[in-house]
Amino acid sequence: MNQFENLNCLNIGDKGKILQLNSTGAIRRRLLDIGLINDTVVECVGKSPSGDPCAYSIRGAIIAIRHEDCENIIIDRHPKGSS
Hints:
Layout: E1 4-6, E2 15-21, H1 25-33, E3 41-47, E4 54-58, E5 61-65, H2 67-70, E6 73-78
Antiparallel strand pairs: 1-6, 2-3, 2-6, 3-4, 4-5
């Protein structure tokens, strides 16, 4: 069963596939530049002690993204351990 959620829903070790970016302006450009385009698989690899920001593996790079920016990134959640 597919679950469409935002990037914030991922816990460490969870993966999701990018479906849509709802961000605008400079942050949208930045997210696109780091590889957050449709069908990209993203894995949550860490969270700061306060929970914000979180670190994600995106196309081989580890990128920290703030909670407020993750709210605008819609994903299709993958079960743990899937590619």
